[in-house]
Write a structure and sequence with these properties.
By secondary structure, the chain is of the alpha/beta class. Helices cover about 40% and strands about 15% of the residues. Strands 1-2-3-4-5-6-7-8 form an eight-stranded parallel β-barrel, surrounded by five helices. Helix 5 packs across helix 7 and helix 7 runs parallel beside helix 8. The mean pLDDT is about 95. Bound molecules: 2-phosphoglycolic acid. 2-phosphoglycolic acid binds next to strand 8.
């Protein structure tokens, strides 16, 4: 029996301002009636304090977009898991493809970030996904399995506490979306990999991300192993994000 509630997570990336956030969060909070899925927004680190105070007591959880692989120390510019915890952060994205591609994050760094988050009581949202060339050369399964294997290897039995997000790189911010069948195919592979690692694999939510929007969310969410979404662009528009939360609440 499936024990997973749908989880919808907005990834604001490097967007927003104190003024814009106040409007967006207030619009979101006032439209949450009828939403019964789990929901969160991952805001820039500089906006955690504001979002924490606006979201307190609400059904919208707070998330961050990255965390240091180190516990503390001389790491200029880094933010530790304990620092995120001070702001009551529930989720943190680790290994987003933009960090892997633009900031050189390796599978092992991503695994350590997940470990730091778990040790601080924060749920890491571990992103995996293949590039366009890997997709076209039939390497999707091998790539996502390699990325997830590093996290499984470093986190042992805690692996049932993570969230996984399958985000095909070719679908992020491009308007191209995996078909529901393509997404389910990869989610099924990831589920089987988790099952081989833990008896609790059915507890792990596997989100889809990559141009998910108000028009395609319901079909993606109808797949048995698509347990929610990690949503970039469409999470910055209150009406779109709310309609996706409602699609996940059916
Ligand atoms: P997108 O981004 O929804 O804008 O494609 C998703 C993500 O990068 O998490």
């Amino acid at each position: 029996m499936t024990v997973r509630s749908k989880l919808m997570v907005g990834n604001w990336k490097m967007h927003g301002s104190l003024a814009a956030n106040a409007f967006l969060l207030s619009d979101l909070l006032s439209g949450m009636g009828g939403v019964n899925c789990l929901a969160a927004v991952c805001v820039p680190a500089t906006h955690l304090a504001q979002a924490q105070s606006l979201l307190v007591g609400s059904a919208l959880a707070l998330g961050a977009q990255d965390v240091s692989a180190h516990e503390s120390g001389a790491y200029t510019g880094e933010v530790s898991a304990a620092m995120l915890r001070d702001f009551e952060v529930r989720y943190v994205i680790v290994g987003h493809s933009e960090r892997r591609q633009l900031h050189g994050e390796t599978d092992i760094v991503v695994a350590h970030k997940a470990q730091r988050a778990l040790a601080a009581g924060i749920t890491p949202i571990v992103c995996v996904g293949e590039s366009l060339s890997e997709h076209e050369s039939g390497q999707t399964e091998a790539v996502v399995k390699r990325q997830l294997a590093a996290v499984i290897h470093s986190n042992g039995h805690c692996i049932s506490e993570i969230v996984v997000a399958y985000e095909p790189v070719w679908a992020i911010g491009t308007g191209l979306t995996a078909t529901p069948e393509q997404a389910q195919g990869v989610h099924g592979v990831l589920r089987a990999q988790l099952q081989a690692a833990t008896a609790q694999a059915d507890r792990v939510s596997i989100l889809y991300g990559g141009s998910m929007n108000a028009a395609n969310a319901a079909d993606l969410l109808a797949q048995p192993d698509v347990d929610g979404g990690l949503i970039g662009g469409a999470s910055l528009k209150a009406t779109d994000f709310l309609s996706m939360l409602k699609a996940a609440s059916r």
